[in-house]
Design brief:
The complex is a heterodimer of chains A (318) and B (422). Chain A is of the alpha/beta class. In chain A, 47% of the residues lie in helices and 20% in strands. In chain A, the strands form 2 sheets. An 8-stranded mixed β-sheet of chain A has the order 9-8-7-6-2-3-1-10. In chain A, strands 4-5 form a two-stranded antiparallel sheet. Chain A is elongated, with a radius of gyration of 31 Å. Chain A starts with 9 loop residues before the first strand and ends in a 13-residue tail after the last helix. The C terminus of chain A is likely disordered. Chain B is an all-alpha fold. Helices cover 70% and strands 3% of the residues of chain B. In chain B, strands 1-3-2 form a 3-stranded antiparallel β-sheet. Chain B is elongated. The C terminus of chain B is likely disordered. The chains are: A alpha/beta (318), B mainly alpha (422). At the A-B interface, α9 of A face α21 and α22 of B.
């Protein structure tokens, strides 16, 4: 729906912004639909009215950063209240926040705004125009909160506004822009930390050992397929389907003679012993893994359910 | 009359898809009382229904019938046939009714003094009611009880081989582990019996219950037979009620255990004879005798750790056996069971004790290791799932949040008295 932008500006997005937006969204969503057991005692009265509001609330906020020449770098963001009656963002609050941020970060100024959803909508244009008096060409950062495991890249899109003439009327429409992610050292550490909290079923080889082993696995797979090809070729030659090529046969036989002696008794012995040793080590590793998981779980269980446990004792968190 | 016919018609009509089934379930529940009082419901009405297609309706009718006038033998036959052919999906909609029906079946079978007939139907009933292989149902202990009465331990053991992860009623769990332990004792698998009985003994309980006391008595004896150890105190994870009260109920067993630890056969036998009436009452006399005979084995095992070679006569003297012949028989038995490794030289009556020849480098070993590792991986997955569900538990999150605030006051981790109340 939105075409690509042609303004020529390069956008750099910091992960802090993405984390902020997703945190804001998650918080609002959890507060609207609280888990059943916890808030039963607390918000019994206020809960009745808003039991199941819109399952995907839209959140709004402002993004701030620096623009140097043709590069726009979005560093940070803060939240804003959306007034559904007038369909605008709370202006006074925005200006107050802007002043506060100016004191701490004098270089940053409001570059645009963000929201959540799957696609840019018409009503967003109104908000966009309202912001145009702070920044002549604001950016619109859109985060898609729907979790899609098949999707490989971030569900974040950045739109710019462009003046296009459609049917003789000059209209402002949203246009896609590409962006890159830029990290500061502190952000890299926190993103690394969050990434390691991945759930148990993950799939991708995140650790070095797994990457190394996958490499070996694919190498062996390729060797196996090549040997299979050779085997088929030799069988066909024996049957007579393919004319005998002596040079190839000589190469194959020299290759075979280079193989180590695999048939001797001692090789078998050593091989099995090493194999069993590795299996025993794996078993030990699995048991240690299980024991540590069980330990953590028992700690959590004691905290949650044990009535008279913590009398001034220390617990090792994490 | 009309209501029953209408009911039959609706059962036959609505047994097709799951939406219809829930409607049918509602109808049946409302009609339950009328079914009970209505004397027109006879066996003939049952003939009109097919148990494999109309399982839900058949279940309700059968339950109302067997409560009333139908003879015991006939009801046993009907229920057995029903269990074998019913549809598991429909049954799970009305699992409590099914469970009561099966319990009634078990009672009738026991009254008829023919427990063997009930074993196969109950085993299949357990499989059908189980939502997943990890859930414990109310039928498990009943099935195991029947297997025990019928002495067909293998069928019972097949039920025991599931790993139970979810338990509904604690009483079911106690009974399941207790009966399971007894079945394993019957099969002479003392390791698994010891684990199951340990579960009962250390299960959380606020008051001592009879099942746990009986299980503890058997647990002491099984431990003596299996590993030759007796400790007078319960494991630390047993509930405080158990730790305080079990001792008073199990004094004869404690004495047996203590004598066993001393290792003298004569005294052990004297104690057994003294308390034999107690053991008879608890039906544990057989186990006690097995424990006594295992003491010989334990003593011979101790000898292997001290000596390299020994003559048969010396073994007989040290272990207080009658003569060398008996010693030879014992040692031979132990070699066959795999408990010790030794060579008997019959010419001069010497026994040479050897090391364990297992080098762990055969291909059979690989298969053993592989299966064990797979099991551990499965266990680890279950543990991780439990851990994650605990981390999401709002009770836990609430308490963690509250505690964290206390430690926010700088690095003073040493002796912060808990005066700060939230």
């Amino acid at each position: 729906m939105a075409p690509s932008s042609s303004s020529g500006l390069t956008f750099k997005l910091h992960p802090l912004v993405i984390v902020n937006i997703s945190d804001h969204y998650t918080r609002v969503k959890t507060q609207l639909n609280p888990p059943p057991s916890v808030c039963a005692t607390e918000n019994a009265s206020s809960n009745n009215g808003e039991a199941m509001l819109q399952p995907n609330p839209r959140v709004y906020g402002c993004v701030i950063g620096v623009q140097r020449g043709r590069t726009v770098e979005i560093f940070n963001s803060f939240e804003l209240l959306f007034d559904p009656s007038t369909e605008t963002l709370d202006r006074s609050f925005l200006e107050k926040k802007q002043e506060l941020y100016k004191k701490v970060f004098p270089d940053f100024y409001v570059l645009g705004w963000y929201s959540t959803g799957s696609d840019a909508e018409e009503s967003d244009m109104l908000i966009h125009k309202a912001l145009m008096d702070i920044n002549e060409s604001p950016v619109y950062v859109l985060l898609n909160p729907a979790i899609n495991h098949a999707q490989k890249d971030l569900p974040v899109t950045i739109y710019e506004s462009e003046l296009h003439v459609i049917d003789g009327i000059p209209l402002l429409i949203f246009a896609h822009t590409s962006y890159t992610i830029e990290t500061v050292e502190a952000e890299r550490i926190s993103v690394d930390h969050v990434a390691h909290l991945k759930p148990s079923d993950g799939g991708s080889a995140a650790t070095q050992l797994a990457a190394h082993l996958t490499g070996i696995h694919s190498a062996i797979k390729m060797l196996n397929s090549r040997i299979r090809v050779l085997h088929q070729y030799l069988a066909a030659m024996e049957k007579g389907d393919i004319p005998c090529e002596n040079s190839l046969l000589r190469q194959v036989s020299s290759l075979l003679r280079r193989l180590p002696a695999m048939e001797s008794e001692r090789f078998h012995d050593n091989f099995l012993m090493e194999y069993n040793d590795k299996l025993l080590v794996t078993y030990l590793a699995m048991i240690t893994n299980c024991t540590s998981t069980m330990n953590e779980m028992v700690d959590k269980f004691n905290i949650a359910y044990d009535r008279n446990a913590r009398r001034g004792g220390r617990t090792a968190f994490m | 009359m009309n209501s029953t016919e209408a009911l039959i018609a609706s059962i036959q009509g609505l047994s097709a898809s799951s939406g219809d089934l829930s409607a049918l379930h509602g109808i049946l529940r409302k009609a339950e009382d009328s079914l009970r009082t209505n004397s027109d419901v006879q066996l003939a009405t049952l003939e009109q229904l097919d148990p494999s297609i109309h399982s839900l309706g058949y279940l309700y009718l059968l339950e109302a019938l067997t409560r009333g006038p139908v003879s015991k033998a006939k009801s046993v036959l009907l229920i057995a046939r029903f269990i074998n052919s019913c549809d598991a999906g429909q049954i799970r909609l009305a699992s409590e009714k099914f469970v009561t029906l099966c319990k009634r079946f078990k009672d009738r079978v026991l009254e008829l003094k023919d427990p063997l007939r009930g074993v196969a139907p109950l085993v299949s009933a357990v499989r059908k009611v189980q939502v997943s292989a990890k859930c414990l149902t109310a039928l498990h202990p009943d099935c195991l009880q029947l297997c025990l009465q019928a002495k067909c331990y293998k069928a019972g053991f097949s039920i025991l081989s599931d790993d139970i992860l979810e338990v509904d009623q604690p009483r079911d769990f106690y009974l399941y582990c207790y009966y399971g332990g007894m079945i394993c004792i019957g099969l002479k698998r003392f390791q698994k019996a010891s684990e199951l009985l340990y579960n009962v003994v250390t299960a959380p309980m606020y008051q001592v219950n009879a099942i746990a006391v009986e299980a503890y008595k058997k647990y002491i004896l099984v431990n003596l037979i299996h590993s030759g150890q007796f400790s007078g105190s319960l494991p630390k994870c047993a509930s405080s009620a158990a730790q305080r009260h079990f001792k008073t109920w199990c004094t004869p067993y404690y004495e047996v255990g203590n004598r066993y630890n001393d290792g003298k056969i004569r005294e052990l036998e004297a104690v057994v004879v003294a308390h034999s009436s107690d053991f008879e009452e608890d039906n544990n006399l057989g186990l006690v005798k097995q424990a006594v005979s295992s003491l010989y084995k334990r003593n011979i095992l101790r000898l292997t750790q001290k000596y390299l070679t020994l003559s048969l006569q010396d073994i007989a003297n040290m272990v207080q056996l009658a003569n060398a012949k008996e010693a030879e028989m014992h040692v031979l038995q132990m070699i066959q069971d795999g408990q010790i490794h030794a060579l008997i030289n019959q010419k001069d009556g010497m026994v040479r004790f050897l090391e364990d020849p297992e080098q762990y480098k055969t291909s059979e070993m690989i298969e053993v290791m592989d299966s064990v590792i797979q099991r551990t991986i499965g266990l680890s997955k279950n543990l991780l799932a439990m851990d994650e569900s605990l981390s999401r538990d709002p009770l836990y999150l609430g308490k963690v949040g509250r505690e964290r605030q206390k430690y926010d006051f700088g690095d003073d981790f040493d002796t912060v008295p808990q005066q700060f109340s939230m």
